Amino acid sequence: MAGEKRNIKLKIDNVKKIYNSRNGEMVALNGVSLDIYENEFICVVGPSGCGKSTLLNIIAGLLEPSSGSVYCDGKEVKGTGTERGVVFQQYALFPWMTVKKNVMFGLGLQGIKGKEAEEIAMKYIKMVQLEDFLDHYPKELSGGMKQRVAIARAYAVNPSVLLMDEPFGALDAQTRTQLQSELLETWEKEQKTCFFITHDVDEAIILAQKVIIMSARPGRIKEVVDVNIPYPRTQETKMAPEFLELKNHIWGQVYQEYLEVRK
Predict the structure, then answer these.
(1) Strand, coil or helix: what is 53?
(2) Are 189 and 64 in a shared domain?
(3) Are the C-beta atoms of residues 153 and 102 closer than 8 Å to each other?
(4) Could you report the per-residue pLDDT of 176-208, keeping only the tens digit for each?
(5) Chain-centre distance for alpha carbon 163
């Protein structure tokens, strides 16, 4: 990917978000600007309440900014769109639908039905290794399996941008590590633009080409850190000197912001 001329996929232009509460105005985002390129993998870290999820929801079209704009492929984001797929921490599966039906759901909204929808769904169910669980319901699946279904459903509608809000945050360490590896493999094959929120600095460095560090409320971009560690990355990468150096730097910046919140 290095040296290629890439187009700007997402442009975040001076986005502010102000909530009105009983205690007056609360500024969640205070002038965030960022260009994200085609096929780029971005991770966002920062203390709780710094506006990470608010920014993702604005990119997804689930929230409107108070001022500023977000552009996807040069068009201003006004509401949700199939070019932007979202995966949340809470799985967000339909409990009354089987694995296969959950993955097919978004295809139906696009007017893709019948055999074609089944073939597409099966491709991504196989990708997340759940072909033996097609007729299972969410209540019959582990947390890691539910999240695999959510990822398959997001990929099935073929979005060019994948927005992920701490998708592995509720999982045990082993499952989390496995899903990180699978996500990287899929991203390299499918060439999506990924915007991934995490509280885990290790996770951010193992996945991303750039790590965005956000400041304490009101949320702003404090620093953009390039992760110049070649892919494929494995768990052994975490022992490399350049990984540890990045981890110390990013964690130090995030911890400073955490202390600001505590004041």
Answers:
(1) helix
(2) yes
(3) yes
(4) 888 888 889 888 888 899 999 999 999 999 999
(5) 4
**β-strands 210-214, 221-226 pairing:** antiparallel
pTM comes to 0.90
Nearest CA to 109 among 60, 157, 42, 45? Answer: 157
Are 149 and 102 within 8 A, CB to CB? yes
Could you report the per-residue pLDDT of 100-137, keeping only the tens digit for each? Answer: 999 999 898 888 999 999 999 999 998 888 999 999 99
Which residues, 6 or more positions from 89, have their beta carbon under 8 angstroms from its beta carbon? 165, 166, 167, 169, 170
Between 222 and 188, whose confidence is greater?
A: 222
| Residue 219 domain flag | yes
Amino acid at 113: K
> Of all helices (H) and strands (E), which one includes residue 205?
helix 201-207
Q: Which domain holds residue 237?
A: 7-83+160-250
Given a cut of 70, is residue 263 above it in pLDDT?
Answer: no
User: What counts of helices (H) and strands (E) characterise the chain?
Assistant: 7, 10
Yes or no: say if 20 and 188 are a contact pair by the CB < 8 Å rule. Answer: no
DSSP state of 110: T
Out of 132, 158, 184, pick the residue that ends a domain. 158
Number of structural domains found in the chain? 2
Residue (of 47, 22, 88, 5) closest to 214 by Cα position: 47
Same domain membership, residue 164 and residue 78: yes
Q: Determine the residue type at 251.
A: W
Q: Are residues 165 and 154 in the same domain?
A: no
